[in-house]
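Students often ask why we bother encoding 3D structure as a string. The short answer is that it lets us treat folding as translation between two languages. Here is a chain of 92 residues written in the first language.
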Amino acid sequence: MIIRLYELFGSHALRQRETAQKVVEMVINEPTSRKVIVDFDQIEFATRSFLNELLSGLYNKDNVEFINTNESIEQMMKISFKPLTCNSEVTA
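And here it is in the second language, the structure alphabet:
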């Protein structure tokens, strides 16, 4: 399955969490054995809110690939979502 963001939303800019939630729902409704490609072709800008919602909603989904991300979107992805890591050592 390919989710073409520009065709889906008709905009060069993705701004809202609700928009990202629609994409997350589409991916979650696909069988995990089926690869899902999220295509950013013609998307020039995505807000931190959009990307945080998208990336956190798709975290640990091994069947998802992002393609055609420009440098601006890639940089925003890096700062929008940083999964927490947990130190399992407990000192008393």
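Translate back mentally: The mean pLDDT is 88. Keep this in mind for the problem set.
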